[in-house]
């Protein structure tokens, strides 16, 4: 007997003499009925059919319950509860509270925002898991750390503190010709941070701890005009080595006074020290004048410009 291609139903061959046609039809009909039932196993409204492991046989998936969704479980379709990707638990952190911890739409509240009452308010930590409000400051104020270093606060911008010194001598200085002479300073017009010592290394301006940065060094020099066209040379020294010098020529006539001023900006760190040296080539001695008048006589000063 012949069979169909897809389902293997038995049919007569073309050369068969069908003597019992009714029986053949019943056999074919039974095969069709069995196959159709295997492909349509649903027995209830809403049931779905899916291919089973057996060829030409489907399995019925009964209808799920209200709200369920279709998913795959164990390699086959299955109805499951519609909670996939839902937030099942919310753990509140600092400043966060949860009105409902489960459900499709949990309600989360940032309770720390209750502390903010004014535009520009800031929140800062006062302890572990604790915040507090810092109200907005006034125009021009800056944010600082309080004196106890425990919290921020608003405050006025502090004016930069002046730092430096200005040195003087109690006696005039006589400088021989062609001799590089170091100037020692035994007095101070002012000294903000112990840059100078009148008795220990009095020639030096020494940068104190915490004051490293840039400095303006100025030397003003008043001397007798005895050079008669000669030259006077001024030198700045740093840590015992010359770093700058300036050479000036006097007038062609002697007599009167010669005033000169020299300045330089230097970069220095704590313990660096600076000194002044002078020399002249008049062929004789030259007097440098020192007394209490800072603006008119020889003096040596440094001014801190910043780091």
Features:
about 300 residues; mainly beta; Jelly Rolls; five-stranded antiparallel sheet; about 5% helix; about 40% strand
3D structure, described in words:
It is a single chain. By secondary structure, the chain is mainly beta. Among the domains are: 2-65, no CATH class; 164-306, Jelly Rolls. The chain is built from 1 helix and 24 strands. A 5-stranded antiparallel sheet has the order 16-13-24-18-21, with no helix packed on it. Strands 15, 17, 19, 20 and 22 form a 5-stranded antiparallel sheet that branches. It starts with a strand and ends with a strand.
Short description:
The chain contains 1 helix and 24 strands.
Query: Which strand order spans the largest sheet, edge to edge or round the barrel?
Result: 16-13-24-18-21
Number of strands: 24
Mean pLDDT over the full residue set: 84
Strand share of the residues? Answer: 35-45%
What pattern of helices and strands is seen along the backbone? EEHEEEEEEEEEEEEEEEEEEEEEE
* SS summary, helix count: 1
List low-pLDDT spans. Answer: none
Broad structural category: mainly beta
CATH class of the domain at 164-306, anyone?
Mainly Beta
Helical proportion? under 10%
Structural Rg: 51 Å
Largest sheet: 5 strands, antiparallel
Assign the CATH architecture of the domain at 164-306. Sandwich
Whole-Å distance between the termini?
A: 108 Å
CATH topology of the domain at 164-306: Jelly Rolls
Anisotropy-based shape: rod-shaped
Layout of helices and strands:
Elements: E1 2-3, E2 10-11, H1 21-39, E3 48-51, E4 58-61, E5 69-73, E6 76-80, E7 96-98, E8 108-110, E9 122-127, E10 130-134, E11 142-145, E12 152-155, E13 164-168, E14 173-175, E15 181-182, E16 187-191, E17 205-206, E18 213-224, E19 231-238, E20 241-249, E21 257-268, E22 273-280, E23 286-288, E24 299-306
Antiparallel strand pairs: 1-2, 3-4, 5-6, 7-8, 9-10, 11-12, 13-16, 13-24, 14-23, 15-22, 17-22, 18-21, 18-24, 19-20, 19-22
């Amino acid at each position: 007997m012949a069979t169909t291609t897809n389902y293997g139903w038995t049919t007569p061959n073309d050369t068969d003499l069908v003597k019992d046609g009714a029986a053949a039809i019943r056999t074919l009909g039974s095969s069709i009925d069995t196959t159709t039932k295997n492909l349509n196993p649903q027995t209830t409204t809403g049931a779905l059919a899916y291919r089973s492991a057996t060829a030409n046989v489907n399995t019925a998936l009964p209808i799920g319950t209200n709200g369920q969704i279709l998913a795959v479980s164990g390699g086959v379709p299955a109805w499951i509860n519609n909670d996939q990707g839902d937030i099942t638990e919310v753990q509140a952190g600092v400043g966060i509270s949860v009105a409902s911890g489960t459900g499709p739409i949990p309600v989360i509240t940032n309770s720390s925002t209750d502390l903010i009452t004014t535009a520009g308010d800031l929140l800062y930590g006062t302890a572990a898991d604790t915040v507090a409000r810092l109200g907005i400051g006034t125009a021009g104020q800056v944010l600082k750390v309080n004196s106890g270093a425990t919290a921020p606060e608003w405050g006025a911008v502090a004016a930069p503190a002046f730092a430096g010194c200005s040195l003087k001598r109690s006696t005039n200085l006589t400088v021989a010709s062609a001799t590089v002479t170091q100037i020692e300073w035994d007095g101070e017009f002012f000294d903000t941070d112990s840059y100078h010592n009148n008795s220990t290394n009095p020639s030096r301006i020494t940068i104190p701890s915490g004051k490293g940065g840039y400095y303006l060094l100025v030397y003003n020099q008043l001397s007798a005009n005895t050079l008669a066209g000669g030259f006077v040379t001024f030198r700045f020294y740093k840590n015992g080595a010359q770093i700058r010098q300036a050479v000036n020529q006097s007038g062609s006539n002697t007599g009167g006074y010669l005033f000169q001023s020299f300045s330089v900006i230097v970069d220095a760190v704590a313990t660096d020290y600076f000194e002044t040296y002078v020399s002249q080539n008049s062929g004789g001695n030259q007097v440098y004048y020192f007394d209490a008048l800072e603006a008119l006589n020889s003096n040596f000063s440094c001014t801190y410009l910043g780091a």
